[in-house]
Amino acid sequence: MKKSRFIAFAAASLLASGAAFADDCATEIEGNDVMQFNKKSIDVPAACKEFTLTLKHVGKMPKTTMGHNWVLTTKADEKTVIKEGIAAGPSKDYIESDDAKIIAHTKLVGGGESTSVTFLVSKLTVGEPYAYFCNFPGHAAIMRGTLTVK
Ligand code: ZN
Question: Fewer CB in 10 Å around end: N or C, the chain?
Answer without folding.
Answer: N
